Amino acid sequence: MERSQTILVDTHSHVFTEEFDEDRDAVIARSVEAGVGAILLPNLDDTSIEAVMGLADRHPGVCFPMLGLHPSYVEADYKDRLAKIRIALEQHHDRCVGIGEIGLDYYWSLEYKAEMNDALRTQLSWALEYDLPVSLHARDAIMDTIQAIKDVGADKLRGVFHSFTGTVDELKAVLDLPHFYVGINGVVTFKNNDLKTFLVDNLPPERLIIETDAPYLSPMPKRGKRNEPAHLVHIFEYLTTLYGMSASTMRDKLFASSSNLYNFTVR
């Protein structure tokens, strides 16, 4: 990428996980070389805090941490896990760009539905306390997630519905929230996905941010391989064509959306 170009921002990437233990620094170097100059790191649970913060320390100005409890890790002991994450947040909130990854996941199991909802509302309150945006996981649970936001304070909360794969009506409901963005990743490039049929007419680029969700959901033509931040360029190129914009215009709009939501300073 030429220095004069605006960088791309991978707003959701788990490059701190074990899938990258053998080549993490090389993955980040490839990202920067490809023009993806910022990688945001949503935490998973209390055991991944050290990895998230350590990677941010290792690559300042490129990797930016978030802290939160992913809904898939909400079980009977969720309050203990939240307490540990809260301690870390108190220590590192001035370095964190958001609270995340938090939310609801009704796809795998409803066993801890009540606990997930309580954990979500607790962490939304943290976002208000520390004036941080939230990165939301809302699998098969978009409307309940919206209700939690309204309950805690939709007029003040801000954030993104990451990895959006909902319906057009759910998209419109998200956009009715005044300070929320929609995160689109490699799923939009899949041949059997319906997102492409209604995105352009319903999602203004000013409310769009992009992500990889690495190591998951590799876009075409990398589908089936481990995802990584450098693959964000394929999502960017696909959306640029879908929206019928020039690359420079789309790049500038995406950077503006990402930097409006998240407070980060790239190197």
Q: What would your notes on this structure say?
A:
The protein is of the alpha/beta class and 267 residues long. The protein has a single domain (8-262), classed as TIM Barrel, CATH 3.20.20.140. It is built from 9 helices and 8 strands. It has helices at residues 24-34, 49-58, 78-92, 113-130, 142-152, 168-175, 195-202, 232-243, 247-261, and strands at 8-10, 36-41, 63-67, 98-105, 134-139, 159-161, 180-184, 208-210. The chain has an 8-stranded parallel beta sheet with strand order 1-2-3-4-5-6-7-8, with helices on both faces. Helix 3 (78-92) links the parallel strand 3 and strand 4. Helix 3 packs parallel to helix 4 (113-130) and helix 4 crosses helix 5.
Reconstruct the topology from this structure.
Blueprint: E1 8-10, H1 24-34, E2 36-41, H2 49-58, E3 63-67, H3 78-92, E4 98-105, H4 113-130, E5 134-139, H5 142-152, E6 159-161, H6 168-175, E7 180-184, H7 195-202, E8 208-210, H8 232-243, H9 247-261
Parallel strand pairs: 1-2, 2-3, 3-4, 4-5, 5-6, 6-7, 7-8
